[in-house]
Design a protein that fits this description.
It is built from eight helices and four strands, in the order ααααββααββαα. By secondary structure, it is mostly helical.
């Protein structure tokens, strides 16, 4: 059972996200895309913020949760039998308008992995000072966790976040670091809801540094359409199958 309290940010983070300068910059980025996705008129609701995208994402996620429910059970049993700790790992991520939320994944690391983060920071493939944290052959990853990551099965519980309205099926991947860490040109990616998959996932995943991810995300936002979402969804299974850039 996933406790709802774990999906909301701590009180101090709820306060932090109301910092006025950051909020104003994100609001400007949202205003720049105010063009109706059906009518094309200025001031309308764009595709990425439309109710249609939300409902289609939520319905798709609900169907996939039902379809994959037997697989969920098998993975949960294997995780419990193979290592100590909970089945799910809920990590605070930064989403729409810089709001923090608990993103749900299958646990792929040892139970105290977060406490060990500083001890392995020097192994970060993007450099020890990078805001993006990716390690090839992370020593904290369990044996079954390595398989789940390569197959992207650890991200299946993200479907709950889509149903809850915190994510969409397609969009920029939510970051683990706080909005205060964002450089000014990063903030545009917070003008839309984050997604399970996106241009980053079908373009190399962890082999792509964060600066390039931002470029891909802003390109996705500026060219947003239902058809682009369908193209990304169609390319996602192949990206998962070849495992390119999985970490």
């Amino acid at each position: 059972m996933i406790c709802a309290s774990h999906l909301s940010p701590p009180p101090h983070e709820q306060q932090d996200r109301r910092e006025l300068p950051l909020r104003q910059q994100v609001e400007r980025a949202i205003a720049e895309q105010r063009r109706g996705w059906v009518s094309g008129r200025e001031g309308g609701r764009p595709w990425l913020l439309s109710r249609t995208k939300y409902f289609t994402s939520a319905l798709t996620a609900g169907f996939l949760l039902l379809f994959f429910s037997p697989l969920f059970l098998v993975i949960a049993v294997i995780i419990k039998l193979s290592s100590q700790g909970p089945v799910f790992f809920i990590q605070q991520r930064t989403g729409f308008r810089g709001r923090r939320f608990g993103m749900i994944k299958f646990r792929t690391m040892v139970a105290d992995a977060e406490a060990m983060k500083d001890s392995v920071r020097h192994l970060n493939k993007h450099g020890p000072d990078s805001v993006d944290f990716k390690i090839d052959g992370d020593p904290r990853v369990t044996r079954i966790g390595g398989f789940l990551r390569r197959a992207s099965l650890d991200e299946l519980p993200n479907l709950f976040n889509v149903v809850y309205g915190q994510m969409r099926m397609v969009g920029p991947r939510p970051t683990s670091f706080h909005v205060r860490t964002y450089k000014p040109h990063y903030l545009g990616r917070l003008s839309v809801y984050p997604g399970i998959t996106g241009l980053w996932q079908v373009s190399g995943r962890s082999n792509v540094d964060f600066e390039t991810r931002v470029i891909l995300d802003l390109h996705y936002i500026s060219h947003q359409s239902p058809w682009l979402d369908l193209k990304i969804l169609a390319r996602t299974p192949w990206a998962i199958l070849i495992g390119h850039g999985a970490a």
